[in-house]
């Protein structure tokens, strides 16, 4: 299926009358998704009006079920206390925005552009100079790295002790590898 062919679309209205204007808006938004992600197999949109207290108005719930090869994606916008969807077009916009983000994530995964978080380099402090201007870190692979007191983040250098586990960024200095952006491992972090 490509974007030039119409995407099989089913639109259901619940607790409200069918609206040609709302249907047209849904078709427009589905077509935009099709241009963005051309292999959409089918789309089902449910627009439901939920009756609330008369002083608060009626609220809209929108649910989108999208089928693409190998996946079914679901996005919806439900009225809640923080964001009451009393305007059907706002509810539609937000639901389709959520679906577009899911399609973007799926496309990135399929293309291998997944964000990978680099493992933080870590080690422990093995030396603190008597004048407390620098120290040394032993990395987990047994290398020793120099670090200056100005490289320490979030801790007072004078409170550091030999054996303190730390994370760091490794840079190349004049004398070889050195650690910058050094910060102690918090009690909530576990070194592996």
From TrEMBL:
Tagged with keyword Cytoplasm: no
Coiled coil spans: 89-120
Record InterPro entries: CSP_DNA-bd, NA-bd_OB-fold, RHF-like, RHF/RaiA
GO molecular function, one term: nucleic acid binding
SUPFAM superfamilies per record: Nucleic acid-binding proteins, Ribosome binding protein Y (YfiA homologue)
Domain CSD: 123-184
Keywords: Coiled coil, Ribonucleoprotein, Ribosomal protein
GO cellular component labels: ribosome
Organism superkingdom: Bacteria
Protein name from the UniProt record: 30S ribosomal protein S30
Organism: Limnohabitans parvus II-B4
């Amino acid at each position: 299926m490509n974007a030039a062919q119409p995407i099989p679309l089913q639109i259901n209205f619940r607790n409200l009358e069918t609206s040609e204007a709302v249907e047209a808006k849904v078709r427009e938004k589905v077509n935009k998704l099709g241009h963005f992600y051309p292999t959409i197999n089918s789309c089902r949109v449910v627009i439901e009006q939920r009756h609330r207290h008369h002083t608060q108005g009626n609220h809209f719930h929108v649910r989108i079920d999208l089928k693409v090869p190998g996946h079914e994606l679901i996005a919806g916008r439900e009225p809640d206390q923080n964001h009451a969807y009393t305007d059907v077009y706002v509810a539609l916009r937000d639901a389709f925005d959520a679906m577009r983000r899911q399609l973007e994530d799926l496309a990135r995964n399929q293309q291998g552009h997944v964000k990978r978080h680099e493992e933080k380099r870590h080690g422990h402090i093995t030396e603190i100079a008597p004048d407390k201007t620098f120290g040394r870190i032993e990395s987990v692979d047994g290398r020793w790295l120099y670090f200056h007191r100005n490289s320490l983040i979030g801790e007072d250098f004078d409170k550091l002790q030999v054996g303190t586990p730390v994370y760091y960024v490794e840079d190349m200095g004049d004398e070889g590898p050195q650690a910058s952006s050094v910060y102690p491992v918090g009690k909530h972090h576990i070194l592996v």
